[in-house]
Amino acid sequence: MLSPCWAVATVFAVHGSISSSLAARMPLVADHIAVGAGISKPGYALVMPAVGRLLTMPFVGRVVHRIGGRQATLLLISGRAALLPFIALMPSLRTLAAAMFVAGAFAGTVELAMNAEGIAAERELGRSIMPSRHGMWSVGGFLAGGLGWLLAHAHVDGRATFAVSASPWSGWRRGPAKACRRARPTRQSESGEKPPSFALPRGSILVIGLVGFAAVFAEADSADWSAVYLVS
User: Fold this and answer.
1) pTM (2 decimals)?
2) Distance between CA 232 and CA 226 in Å, rounded?
3) Is-contact 168 43, C-beta < 8 A?
């Protein structure tokens, strides 16, 4: 069984690999629903993951409090992996936008859950591990992006690529996720009050959030459009 430290690292790498698998084959998805409509049309679908994240992430804290970070991570990353092959099968812009919305919701919520597990592992180990865990996200993304490029160069169908990318995680992801230490669900604070279902960021947290918004804006824009740009 993996240690809590490496279990969290593996979950981060899996999440990064799924994101890069989709980004590497985005030209296929764009061509599939934009025939005769111009390259700008997929932009309506590509904005939907951000909408899905925005509408669901504020409520994940309550889920993690209820069922624990480990169980939330397992459920959410399972849904994220299972959804990947279906994105390339969407027959229209409307259905693709719906699938991308759900993909964004899974992506954003699992990010919060796995970061909660990372914090729990840090507390148990008594040292900082989060920078290296986030680095593992990049490692997973780099490897999956490279594999996607090789498969695209070999003219392998994108739908097969997504199925291959998602299938190993469908059976193997449970090991790393289950190896994470299960933080006890915090149903209420020491004062006896239940945690809020939704809380607006304030003060320095709001400033950090705005910095994160700017960083993610650039990251998502390049990830979604760079492959399309290079092909076209």
Assistant:
1) 0.77
2) 10
3) no
